Amino acid sequence: QQKREIVRRYLEPAAYERLMNVRVSNYEFYAQLLDLIISMVQSNRITGRLTEGQLVSILAKLTSKPEPTIEFRHK
């Protein structure tokens, strides 16, 4: 409950709504994202309010996986 209040204070309404959509779809990922946002706030890496675009970029960084590479080995 306290975490949500802290996050609500630092997110714009559209970004908060997106965060709640993540919560509905994948709770473990939501918890990880919530902890990350709170740690960013506590370390003063977030100044002002976080926009939806900034939240989307954080989501992209967390969900990005390295592209698989295909190696051809000749004998």
Pairing-aware structural class of the strands and helices?
Answer: mainly alpha
Count of alpha and pi helical runs: 4
| Shape assignment | elongated
Give the ordered list of helices and strands. Answer: HHHH
Q: Indicate the low-confidence ranges by residue numbers.
A: none
What Rg do the Cα atoms give?
Answer: 16 Å
Describe this structure in words.
- The protein has 75 residues and is mostly helical.
- 67% of the residues lie in helices and 0% in strands.
- It has four helices and no strands.
- The chain has helices spanning 2-10, 13-25, 27-42, 52-63.
- It is elongated and about 60 Å long.
- The model has no long low-confidence stretch (mean pLDDT 87).
What is this structure, in a nutshell?
The protein is an all-alpha fold and about 80 residues long. Helices cover about 65% and strands about 0% of the residues.
